[in-house]
Amino acid sequence: MENNLSVFDCSVIDLGKISFDEGNLTVVENNSSFPFDIKRIFYLYDIAGGESRGAHSHRECHQFLIAASGSFEVSLDDGKFKRQVLLNRPDLGLHIPPGIWASEVNFSSGAICLVLASHPYNESDYIRDYETYLKIQHGK
Questions:
Q1: In the predicted model, what is the mean pLDDT of residues 81-97?
Q2: Catalytic positions, written as ranges
Q3: Given the DSSP bridges, would you call strands 126-127 and 72-77 parallel, antiparallel or unpaired?
Q4: pTM of the model
Q5: Could you give the angle at the alpha carbon of 63 between the alpha carbons of 59 and 64, nearest 5°?
């Protein structure tokens, strides 16, 4: 786990958009300026307004979160600093490298959180207990 990273290493990236008379298109491709190769895609939806999800860290997996619809906030924590990021545009995404504790909070009604991940699902990559996370971060 890259525990030398901070919440300030979590970047909001403008994915750009192509505008047409009929609407907009945003493209995400491997081997572009995207920060990692995508191995898994999933999305969260039908989250009741004001509810939260996440509350974990990854040992190796990078994640990229996009508000495909609606809005939500991402609470970031590196064991020392905390930061809150609002996602409310489908052409912006938040890169969360491994070693950062993240929670998705304050979902608007009908929000969809699209998650692009650098690794396939592996339960052993997750740190789900905050006290364990803090011990790892502080080298205990």
A1: 96
A2: 56
A3: unpaired
A4: 0.90
A5: 165
